[in-house]
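Per-record layout

source: Kineococcus radiotolerans
name: Binding-protein-dependent transport systems inner membrane component
length: 288
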Amino acid sequence: MSAVVPTPTRAAEVRPAGKEPRRPVHTVIGVLIVAFMLFPLYWMVNVSLQPAGNAVATPWLPFDLTLRGYTTAISEQGRNLVTSLLISLGSVVFSLVIATPAAYAMAHFKFGRWATVILFGILVTQMVPGIVVANALYSAYTDLGLLNTMGGLILADSAAGIPFSIILMRAFMGSIPASVVEAAYVDGAGPVRAFFSIVLPMSRNALITAGLFTFLFAWGDFLFALTLTTTADLRPITLGLYTYVGSFVSDWSPIMATAVLSSLPAIALLVLAQRYVAAGVTGGAVKS
């Protein structure tokens, strides 16, 4: 009797269970979608590197490159960039100082049915249109003398960052086992020390995520900047771009260079903190 020799299985035929083979057409479609979404960014960079002229007449490929637009943008809008940076960082610090202990209290202290009422009130603040808040703040700031002040803009931008940070960090801190905090109490730590030594280090991802989104809220704010500033002494970059673009613009290179410079902080932060953001957003989804 002749022995039956098993036919060797080709490696290409052995696939992990549940995995579909990657089809080239899917890759091509994905690349086309990404290229379509990134084209405005490419065109912005392309125009910013052109010597001068109308954006419509800009060549598709930047052959004659110059940094004149960036030099002009830094000289004319550099102060506005620094103003936006200070306002955004101030909003991050103020929002986290207020939202972090509030989120911890709502996650670990017993409020009974009032916890649901408080959380509902925080959610309602996220639904109020920004123009309503801006008009109310304008009247209040006029009486308090906070118009055209950096502190006033930090408070206004924190109005969006604080509720979001409380909701995000409450979900994350609620997933921290109560036994961990109780163990700190047994070792002699009080509520304040347990908060700073145990809860905050464990909530690093949520803190970074909340701080990043608060920074983006403040950096991209236009409504509060337009409503609460009436002079050119204090002008964030969003308002600087708005006043930079006139009705008869013939040289778009400095404008696009300003737009590129104003996009760099947000892009850099998102790239550096993306793994913390992913962990911070999903951290409270599963309870330990």
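summary: The two ends are 62 Å apart (CA to CA). The CA atoms of residues 205 and 276 lie 5 Å apart.
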